[in-house]
Amino acid sequence: MIVTERLVLRPYAARDRATIVAHIADAEVMRYLNPVPTDADVDAMIERQNGYLATLGYCFWSVEVRATGAMIGVCGLKPGTAGGSLDGAVEIGWRFGRDHWGQGFAREAAQASLDWGFATLPVDRVGAITVAANVRSWTLMERIGMVRDPDGDFDHPSVPDDSPLKRHITYWKVRS
């Protein structure tokens, strides 16, 4: 568990599922991500993240507001996607409900995840990926000190070839 001034990043709980489903049902939240997952996909994602936590000690954690206990998104670290620019590396990522955008929650959670990763894991860098059109995401990457790696641009292996989301850009944060 990671605790910040306003947030708690913690393992998934059964109560989180409804919030996750609500977030991914929002077309604006999913605008730059893969197609909206099915119920089975949501269950598999939760199981996969819990598996990462059990075996690696980290995952895309549930993010809740300390003052209310409300789950507002996910953020954390996971193994980079096989076949992509982060294959074999640690990846940072986030997704928050639209009602929680623009309040600094994503930055606070992402910075805490990076800090935890560099304090805990034997890695020299952490990467992030998104599509170039996802300005909110890559500007957050820059705000937390990540730097674009143009040589790391790649076609995401799990995105259909005819999708405008196929091409991804890569950012890295190097241990200071």
What coarse outline follows from CA principal-axis ratios? globular
Report Rg.
15 Å
Report the portion of residues in β strands.
25-35%
Uncertain spans, ≥5 residues at pLDDT below 50? Answer: none
Q: Treating each run of at least 4 consecutive H or I residues as one helix, how many helices?
A: 4
First and last CA, distance: 23 Å
Helix/strand/pairing category = alpha+beta
Question: Level of helix content?
Answer: 25-40%
> N-to-C SSE series?
EEHHEEEHEHEEE
Overall mean confidence score, pLDDT: 92
Largest sheet: 9 strands, mixed
What is the number of E strands?
A: 9
Tell me about this structure.
- There is one protein chain.
- This protein has helices at residues 16-24, 39-56, 105-120, 135-143, and strands at residues 2-3, 7-10, 60-65, 71-79, 90-96, 125-130, 147-148, 154-155, 167-174.
- With 176 residues, it is α+β, with helices and mostly antiparallel strands.
- Strands 1, 2, 3, 4, 5, 6, 7, 8 and 9 form a nine-stranded mixed β-sheet that branches.
- The mean pLDDT is 92.
Helix and strand topology:
Blueprint: E1 2-3, E2 7-10, H1 16-24, H2 39-56, E3 60-65, E4 71-79, E5 90-96, H3 105-120, E6 125-130, H4 135-143, E7 147-148, E8 154-155, E9 167-174
Parallel strand pairs: 5-6
Antiparallel strand pairs: 1-2, 2-3, 3-4, 4-5, 6-9, 7-9, 8-9
Q: Key features?
A:
alpha+beta; 30% helix; 9-stranded mixed beta sheet; single chain; 176 residues; globular
